[in-house]
């Protein structure tokens, strides 16, 4: 039997001055310069560790996230953490929130060979999982034998190769990834996917991955803030009513729904403040009934509608 899902912390909203979470500009309270963001990140990491969180996720494209996480790991030297990171996007915004482009996507072997040493230098012996960032069905990661062979060699260094998913066809991309084998062995052993009450469509494929022994991480469980206190839309009233019945906050209920999924190993919080960490951690004490979960899942949008709305969230 699989263990219950754990709460983790992703650093997408902490490693760079801009992100697409609702109200992100308010959360940073002026701490947008690198020194201020590093101090904030260390505070949030400490709060998360104190709350029992042991899974931490970064990416090459999250600005200085890997460097900030490196500083915390060096200072605290924890022995019981699981660190994951991602390659395949390059951060190009030059610390400007209003940049026309924030990330450049490239899943080529050349990008992997450039970014892998950078990640290894920052996260070293703590790194356990290395994911291709935002794989879609047309990604070279699913079709390029040379890249796949190179990724398979990560296991020789004690790192599990995996992929993160994005877009309305997450399930299709994951189904293809599950079929990729190198020398008779599955290439990937981990997946990070968007799953939330508004976009649960990848659930069956995530369950298939879990059944095959993959490590399954859920990202964007709060739909970039749409399922939190700043959320909006037709789902808001129903979510609030259920939260009131449980004497819980909106974010705690939404995270609790993700934690209740049988395929989830880790559900990532996207906390940008210590207050977020405390509020998100309350999800561990929200016990949703099957009827509650059925009611919540009725809030789902179509994948096309969800991802179209996400694409219009402004960097702030």
From TrEMBL:
Transmembrane segments: none annotated. Pfam families: Aldo_ket_red. SUPFAM superfamilies: NAD(P)-linked oxidoreductase. Residues 40-299 form the NADP-dependent oxidoreductase domain. Signal peptide: none annotated. It comes from the Bacteria. InterPro entries: AKR2_Oxidoreductase, NAD(P)_OxRdtase_dom_sf, NADP_OxRdtase_dom. This is NADP-dependent oxidoreductase domain protein. It comes from Deinococcus maricopensis (strain DSM 21211 / LMG 22137 / NRRL B-23946 / LB-34).
